[in-house]
Amino acid sequence: MLLGVAAAVAAVIAVASWMRAGRLARKLDALTQSYWELRYDFTRLRSQVARLDPETAEPEAPAAPPAGGGSFISLASIKSTTKKG
């Protein structure tokens, strides 16, 4: 008897949890959709503002060279050619 009641309570809790997870999944989908719509609108409006007033638009800054005047050194040139054995 007690085992049957515990199983019924567990089943009710499982169904309630399943329903809540479904609602949360739908809410997450709606929030994700809203986020991407806002990002799209923001980018579109930013480009419109840049076309209307190019002086106030933020220019795309090129990547800065590494400090210290360093240059690219390949990993293969650093590796030792002698084998330890």
What does this entry look like structurally?
The protein is 65% helix and 0% strand. The chain is mostly helical. The N and C termini lie far apart (72 Å). The model has no long low-confidence stretch (mean pLDDT 83).
Question: Main traits of this protein?
Answer:
85 residues, mainly alpha, 2 helices
Write a brief caption for the model:
The protein has 85 residues and is mainly α. Helices cover 65% and strands 0% of the residues.
Spatial shape: flat
Number of helices: 2
Order of SSEs: HH
Estimate the helix proportion, in percent: 55-70%
How widely separated are the two ends?
72 Å
Q: Summarize the biggest pleated sheet.
A: none
Detail the poorly predicted runs. Answer: none
Whole-number radius of gyration?
Answer: 30 Å
Strand content range: under 5%
Q: Count every beta strand, where a strand is a DSSP E run of 2 or more residues.
A: 0
What is the averaged pLDDT score?
83
Structural class: mainly alpha
Assembly annotation? single chain
Topology at a glance:
Blueprint (H helix, E strand, L loop, with lengths): L1 H51 L22 H4 L7
